[in-house]
């Protein structure tokens, strides 16, 4: 595999999230450079970035390794997203452009169509694009970047059940866009908060063999074992 040097960080992150590199495994510069077809310099820079993001840790005598988040840390990510997504929606109601609205409305139309046809895989992708665009419409690069990192980490630590009522979920997306289009910050915030709360209930921590725990664990400090998990 040969990729542009500036894409090394994204490639390594994607492979961590998808389970190519197991939790706790070593990430040597030489092997990574060979895998992605680059020199060790962009690999070293990528590992520093990923360490700052929480995907990588540096251990004495071992060097860079894939992080091993605890269940409490995983739970905190969902709570952070539940706080920040409504804020992004409220900001978007004041700062969105017509281009943002066009994309958001198009995604809602596609989502509603796919929901009627029962295309669950399409809905996951469309939902991710919707929330990414909504964050961008907030006009806050810091908020957009933070939410993007949260999405990556949540995808790494959780599996998401297919919602029982996808049409209702996409109706909520439509309500968010309507509020954003009207410039109604409080309405956009409240609908997004409700939507985020319902979505959080469908998240299940990943465990050995791909099994899931039925309830969210909020207090345990034991590491989440993701060995063998693939997205």
Automatic annotation (TrEMBL):
The keyword Ion transport does not apply. Gene3D superfamilies: GntR ligand-binding domain-like (1.20.120.530), Winged helix-like DNA-binding domain superfamily/Winged helix DNA-binding domain (1.10.10.10). Residues 2-69 form the HTH gntR-type domain. The keyword DNA-binding applies. Keywords: DNA-binding, Transcription, Transcription regulation. PROSITE patterns: HTH_GNTR. SUPFAM superfamilies: GntR ligand-binding domain-like (SSF48008), Winged helix' DNA-binding domain (SSF46785). InterPro entries: GntR_C, TF_FadR/GntR_C, Tscrpt_reg_HTH_GntR, WH-like_DNA-bd_sf, WH_DNA-bd_sf. This is GntR family transcriptional regulator. It comes from Streptomyces siamensis.
């Amino acid at each position: 595999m040969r990729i542009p040097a500036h894409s090394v960080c994204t490639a390594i992150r994607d492979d961590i999230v998808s389970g190519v590199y197991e939790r706790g495994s070593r990430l040597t510069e030489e092997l990574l450079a060979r895998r992605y077809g680059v020199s060790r310099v962009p690999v070293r820079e990528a590992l520093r970035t990923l360490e700052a993001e929480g995907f990588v840790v540096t251990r004495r005598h071992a060097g860079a390794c894939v992080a091993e988040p605890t269940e409490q840390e995983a739970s905190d990510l969902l709570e952070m997203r539940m706080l920040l997504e409504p804020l992004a929606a409220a900001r978007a109601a004041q700062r969105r452009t017509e281009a943002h609205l066009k994309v958001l409305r198009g995604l809602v139309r596609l989502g509603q169509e796919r929901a009627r046809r029962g295309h669950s895989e399409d809905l996951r992708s469309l939902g991710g694009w919707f929330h990414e665009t909504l964050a961008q419409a907030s006009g806050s690069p810091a908020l957009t970047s933070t939410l993007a990192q949260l999405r990556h980490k949540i995808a790494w630590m959780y599996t998401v059940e297919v919602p029982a009522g996808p049409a209702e979920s996409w109706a909520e997306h439509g309500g968010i866009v309507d509020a954003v289009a009207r410039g109604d910050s409080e309405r956009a915030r409240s609908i997004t908060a409700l939507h985020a709360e319902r979505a959080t209930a469908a998240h299940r921590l990943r465990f050995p063999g791909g099994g899931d725990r039925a309830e969210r664990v909020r207090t345990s400090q034991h590491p989440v074992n993701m060995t063998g998990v693939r997205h």
